[in-house]
Amino acid sequence: LNPLLNAFVSVAAGPALAQAAESEARLGRGEGRPLEGVPLAIKDNTAAAGFPTTRGSRASSPQVETADAVVVSRLRRAGAVIIGKTNLPEFGAIPVTESDRLGPCRNPWDRRLTPGGSSGGSAVAVAAGMVPGAHGNDGGGSLRIPASCCGVFGLKPSRGRISLSPGPGDAMAGLVSPGFLTITVAD
C-alpha cells in the first residue's frame, strides 16, 4: 500500500520485528505492558531513535536520531513497537500533506484527494490499516483535519499534557500538542 499512498517515509522492519519478538516473549511470561507489541508510527517531525527526521523539508539535514522525544520514549516504555516515520508537509506548516522532499501523501479512500495535514501520513497509515495508531501533533488542526479527511479519530490533548521535548517546546507560542490518530475512540 505504501507505494500508492506514501504514508511512510521511513520504515525499520528489522528492528520492529525484533521488538515484536521481545514483546511476544514478554506476553508469554505474563509481563505485558499497556501497549505491548502494538505497532505505531511517528510523524516525521518528532525524534525517534534509529530513524532520520526530515521535517518534510529539503532545508533539513536529516541525521539518524540517537534519542527519542519524550512522547516516543513513553510509548516505547509502554511496549509500543515503532515501525516508521510518517509523511508531512514541509515543517508541518500547511493543511495538506505534500512536500518537495517527501512527495505527496494520498488519501486512502480516493487517491486524487488530500488526506489533509499536517499529520496526513499518520492518518493515512491508520485509515489504510498499516498501523492501528499513529502519533501526530496539532497546532491549528494538524491532527483533526487529517482525521476528518481520512475517517479516523484524532485527539489533540490539552496544551502541555504531553511533552514536546526535545525540540520546539514552545512551538507556535505553545499551541502545538502531540496527539494520536486511531480507527476509533476506544482504540
Please outline what is shown here.
With 187 residues, the chain is α/β, with parallel strands linked by helices. The protein has helices at residues 2-5, 13-28, 70-77, 120-127, 144-150, 171-174; strands at 8-11, 39-43, 81-86, 133-138, 153-155, 177-182.
Tell me what you see in this structure.
The protein is an alpha/beta fold. It has a single domain, classed as Amidase signature (AS) domain (Amidase signature (AS) enzymes, Alpha-Beta Complex), CATH 3.90.1300.10. 25% of the residues lie in helices and 16% in strands. It has helices at 2-5, 13-28, 70-77, 120-127, 144-150, 171-174; strands spanning 8-11, 39-43, 81-86, 133-138, 153-155, 177-182. A six-stranded mixed β-sheet has the order 1-3-2-4-6-5, sandwiched between helices. Helix 4 runs parallel beside helix 5. The radius of gyration is 15 Å and the shape is globular. The chain starts with a helix and ends in a 5-residue tail after the last strand. The model has no long low-confidence stretch (mean pLDDT 93). GO terms for molecular function: catalytic activity. This is Amidase family protein. It comes from mine drainage metagenome.
Compile the SSE list and pairings.
Layout: H1 2-5, E1 8-11, H2 13-28, E2 39-43, H3 70-77, E3 81-86, H4 120-127, E4 133-138, H5 144-150, E5 153-155, H6 171-174, E6 177-182
Parallel strand pairs: 2-3, 2-4
Antiparallel strand pairs: 1-3, 4-6, 5-6
Helix pairs in contact: 4-5
